[in-house]
Write a structure and sequence with these properties.
This protein is an all-alpha fold. It has 7 helices and no strands.
Amino acid sequence: IVNLTQSFGGNLGWAIVTLSLAIRVAILPLTIRVARRTNRNQKLLQQMKPEIELLKQRFEKNPQQLFTETKKLYRKHNFSPFDLPAILGSFIQLPIFSFIFGAIRASVSSGGRFIWVRNLASPDTALIFVILAITGASAYFLPSASETAKSTMVYIQVLITGFIIWKLAAGL
């Protein structure tokens, strides 16, 4: 990151942005593949929903038989509730992001400026509110089964994000 910073005239902020974008572009094919598998599974589940509801009504008193029949239905539609390739694709990204987080954390300790942030080594309140607004907006515009679930999800996601980033250095 230090070498990248020097190529941007010593601006650590632009070095972090460039490195983050390069990593995202590099893992984009994996991200797209995982998203497609997840969407396919969600569509399959939506198609099977009426049949699952019938099974629930039919075997209301017998959970073991319900489980067995549900498994048969899943096999019939070639559906797996635990899509191993999608799960592994998501977990493969974790070490990459951990490495980048550690590298940026080590570089940010020296400080630096970026746009309105005076010191990348300390928290910036305006940046935190911008991140929380983007998190809330993105959660709000996601499709959801009901408005209540959507509003609850928005609040929870914003609270968790705020809790995580409140004391983080602005450069992270």
